[in-house]
Amino acid sequence: MSAPLSTPRPSRLRLAELRDKWGWFVGLGAALVVVGAIALVNTLAATIASIYTIAFLMLLAGAIQIVQAFGMKSWSNFFLWLPAGVVYALGAVFALLDPILASTVLTLLLAAALAAGGVIRIAAGLGERDHQGWGWVVFSGALTLLAGIVIALGWPVNSLWVLGLFLAVDLLMQGWAMIALGLALRRR
């Protein structure tokens, strides 16, 4: 058996390194809060930016799968990878050409995913009634189910802002978390 390439450093040293960089965490957090606030003010632009980001990632994934297909040693594998890559690429092109329609489709999928996730979480919580905290799992599932239903009831009109709102809230939460982390590191 060989010796490890590097020895683990004590957590005090890692904490000291992080503490030295507390200002970067606060700065990153402040930047995320600003970007999140901008997204919150213009949820349509944030929705379209989200769609373009997803589309570019899908296009990249499709291209990689198509290249992978040509690297296959057998025709059966080639005909599995190639259609998958083509479908990803076509989905990306569709989203790039009509981001509003793509946001409509993704918003409906989001509503369905939230509703399904809520139902599953409620069932899981009810199945664990003999454990402490099961009610919180059911409550969380009920809120998620309710969010899915509310989004579905407002569909397709809300498709112009729902994804942007989710992005804005996520950016704001990440930003405040980074600020809190940076300030906590400074105090230690």
UniProtKB/TrEMBL annotation:
Name used for this protein in its record: HdeD family acid-resistance protein
Xref: InterPro entries: Acid_resist_chaperone_HdeD, DUF308_memb
The species this protein was found in: Mesorhizobium liriopis
PANTHER family: PROTEIN HDED
Entry-linked Pfam families: DUF308
Keywords: Membrane, Transmembrane, Transmembrane helix
Tagged with keyword Membrane: yes
Domain of life from the UniProt record: Bacteria
